[in-house]
Amino acid sequence: MGIISDNIFREGRILIPGGVNSPVRAFKSVGGNPIFIDRAKGSKMFDVDGKEYIDYVGSWGPMIVGHANKHVTKAINEAVAKGSSFGAPSPLEVALASKIVKAVPSIEMVRMVNSGTEAAMSAIRLARAYTNRDRIIKFDGCYHGHADSLLVKVGSGGATLGIPDSLGVPKDFAKYTTSLPYNDIDALTKIMEKEGDSIAAVIIEPIVGNAGVIRPIEGFLEAVRKVTEEQGTLLIVDEVMTGFRVAYGGAQTIFNIKPDLTCLGKIIGGGLPVGAYGGRRDIMSMVAPEGAVYQAGTLSGNPVAMAAGLATLEVIAKDNDFYPKLEAKTKKLTAGIREGAAKAGIPIYLPEAGSMFSIFFTDKEVRNYADAQGTNVAQFREWFHLMLDEGIYLPPSPFESYFVSSAHTGNDIDRTIEAAKKAFKGVTA
Ligand code: KE4
Fold this sequence. Notes:
The radius of gyration is 21 Å and the shape is globular. Helix 3 runs parallel beside helix 11 (303-317) and helix 7 runs parallel beside helix 8 (220-231). Strand 8, helix 9 and strand 9 (261-265) form a beta-alpha-beta unit. It is α/β, with parallel strands linked by helices. It has helices at residues 3-15, 70-81, 91-103, 116-131, 156-160, 171-174, 185-195, 220-231, 251-255, 281-284, 303-317, 322-344, 369-373, 377-389, 410-426; strands at 37-41, 44-47, 52-55, 109-113, 135-139, 177-180, 199-204, 234-238, 261-265, 275-279, 352-353, 356-357, 392-393, 402-403. The model has no long low-confidence stretch (mean pLDDT 97). It binds ligand KE4. Ligand KE4 binds at residues 22, 24, 60, 115-117, 120, 143-145, 156-157, 205, 209-210, 238, 240-241, 265, 275, 400.
């Protein structure tokens, strides 16, 4: 792509595995070298060779109010000027906890951590302690971070690289994890009726974003809640991606599902490292130092990260039409993309949820991970590079979600639709 970027990548690959600090960034499944970014503002990112892109990765979700939002940047600058980390509690942690508890009805208490991985890992440990059971159920293609017991049939980078079950996870760890097809109510009901009394938790993405976007079918989430309640199994809803993305209270408020625990991340950190897990007070009270479930973190609740998350939620909350406007903008974009594909005679399936969407190259519906894996990745690869050539930065994987922010302008949307129409014409039918 660019000489400077390629040179940095050449050096980076010697020093960092794959030249990246998270696998999905490596462009492995689309080919070519990753692009090194120098700076970003609003809906744009600028690479080290000076090329501008309209960005639909948004740091994989956090940048819902756009890059370098002035309110968020001001909050970060003011916070860091007062010290970057205290290793002692700060009022900002209580302020963000209060916002989260007010926003998500099922969360009575919340603990801050540094990533979605830590949030999911800790929620699983807590569920095992609360139920005194070891086994967990997840769903194929869902991704809950890279904790050992959750690296089973994962989506996101695992799916992208074809390593959904990572090496290095002892069989004894993985044996406690059962992964089922998403949207398969019968498969879940069957195992829960037979073995539910040994299942500590079911963990689920309420709208999958890590296999591409997969929406729950009618009644699926309700069935998950029902069978878990019947068996004394905790329901953990992983809203690291959907939390404050599809609605201020997350997907659970859209589907009116009340989980026992919720995982959060991404947007609540405004681009800084923040994760959180929370839920019922009787469960959360088991977390140290109140209870005997140990979980800790040097930088958990970091004041600068809290300031970034608080400012991001403030920007969202001050616009009563924040989500309707974002959804309308997204719908205009996806309608234009569908039109471009149809005109070019390229079948696509484009699922969307609020300001998240993804594009599968197939003439069928995608209802689970197996469907997603059966789509045309070669066409996706062509599409990705044709759009990149047009200055549109998309997730470098068919098993990821695209994100629209409040910073994307009408002109960005129009330019992206024009680029898509041109790109689809270049995709091999
Ligand atoms: P982190 O540990 O990456 O902060 O969060 C893990 C995680 C947990 N749960 C859900 C639903 C998630 O989407 C994620 C992380 N998402 C991916 C993008 N699909 C992170 C991108 C990456 O791995 O670089």
